[in-house]
Design brief:
Blueprint (H helix, E strand, L loop, with lengths): L9 H15 L11 H8 L3 H13 L3 E4 L3 E4 L6 H5 L8 H22 L2 H20 L5 H12 L4 H16 L1 H12 L6 H12 L3 H46 L2
Antiparallel strand pairs: 1-2
Helix pairs in contact: 1-3, 2-3, 5-7, 5-8, 5-10, 5-11, 6-7, 6-10, 7-8, 9-11, 10-11
Amino acid sequence: MISQNDGRKLYQKVVTAISTAIQSGTYKPGQRLPPERDLAEEFEVSRPTVREAMIALDIMGLIEARHGSGIYVTNRRPEGAVAAAAQDLDIGAFELTEARRLFEGEAAALAATTITDEELAELDIILADMADENLKNVSGEKADRRFHVAIAKSTRNSAITLVVETLWDVRDKSPLCRTMLERSREVGVRPLIDDHRDIVDALRSRDPRKARAAMHHHLGTVIENLLTATELEALQRAQMEVAAKRTEFARRAAI
């Protein structure tokens, strides 16, 4: 069980607990870690928290995915500096998106009462830019950021705009968040044009409840896609490993 009372983020607590278990020999090099669901139950945290912890441990070099069979401890033993590195990974994509869902949902609700026709037209233009970025596989999601910041600005509340811009800054600067988003992009996750269009339609109706619900739905889908993306990444690595083994076998069989 993970204590909720100290100031660390939940995923950092899971990272510390597992790295300590590796250091103490509870988990030995080459040993398979328990399944994600079992770890979530053991530490009394969510699947996204465990997923963030696994990616952080991967970045730290303490575990590796042998896909198709699970997550295994590497031969690298955690030293103090390595274990402490969890503190420097900052905020993960699940935690960040949860915060965005909370704040941007309310921003969209307020924006529905203040947004102008000109601002709605600008959102339509940004949507077209977003679709073009997806088509060209442009990284960074600049149009996506412009879209969400434009909604925040349409609330006429500079504090709301600052919060939304800060969350996007964290998204771009946090090593853990950036790694998770890069991995999701590698397996084909892109900004959801239909979701964003639904948000614009809700804003155009000037209905705060619809706008809030549309934003909540969109960012909830982002969380689900992140979960799916990291699972797909594991599957793709497994397929690559199997393909490499098949090629090597064919080469050896031809001798």
